Amino acid sequence: MSNSTVLEMLSKVVATTQTDWDLHLPLAMLAYRSFTHESTESSLSMMMLGQEAELPVDLLFGPPPQRDPEADDPHHFVQERLHLIHSIAQEQLVGAAEHQHQGCEIHMQHHRYEVGNIVWLHQIKAKKGGSPKLQMP
User: Fold this and answer.
1) Measured between alpha carbons, how far is 32 from 40 in angstroms, rounded to an integer?
2) For 85-91, which contacts have Cβ atoms below 8 Å and span 24 or more sequence positions?
3) Could you tell me if residue 120 is inside a domain?
4) How many structural domains comprise the chain?
5) 94: CB partners within 8 A, 6+ apart
6) Could you tell me if residue 61 is inside a domain?
7) Does 71 score more than 70 pLDDT?
8) What radius of gyration, in Å, describes the C-alpha atoms of the chain?
9) Is the pLDDT of residue 87 over 70?
């Protein structure tokens, strides 16, 4: 899990006093675990449990229809379903790594700095009593 991602999610909903972040953490984690990640094209729930997490919308409209009736069989679940999900995710990660490498090469600029060069220093000032990590950018 990426702490920066969770902090970014919390910064959107936390109060300006930053005292209620712990109240928003469970829902932020539910959203993070249910989100289909670009690199693996799977959610963390699917990767860990072999099925999507039940969300509050499922209480309103009912769960989605079962696509695989054998998924309830523990033997099938452990040996086949998770193996399939992990192999697909591994293929996606290889493709994502190549894509990210190509993107970095395109946008990378090599700079050479010498002693005495003027550079821009970006510092975010935190509000007194607050954490800069939870401030809305």
Assistant:
1) 14
2) 85/42, 85/46, 85/47, 85/50, 86/47, 88/40, 88/41, 88/42, 89/40, 89/41, 89/42, 89/47
3) no
4) 1
5) none
6) yes
7) no
8) 21
9) yes
- Full residue range of the structural domain in which residue 31 is found: 3-110
Q: What is the distance, to the nearest Å, from the Cα of residue 124 to the centroid of all Cα atoms in its chain?
A: 24
- 102 domain-assigned: yes
Q: Judge contact between 12 and 43, C-beta under 8 A.
A: no
- d(CA 54, CA 74) in angstroms, rounded, equals 19
For tokens 């769960």, name the residue: 63
Q: What is the pTM of this model?
A: 0.49
Name the burial class of residue 123, with classes exposed (0-12), middle (13-18) and buried (19+) by CB atoms within 10 angstroms of its CB.
exposed
The top-scoring range by mean pLDDT among 26-30, 45-49, 107-111 is 26-30
Residues 65, 75: Cα–Cα separation, whole Å:
21
In a domain, 123, yes or no: no
Whole-number Cα distances in Å, 16 to 32, 76, 131: 23, 49, 10
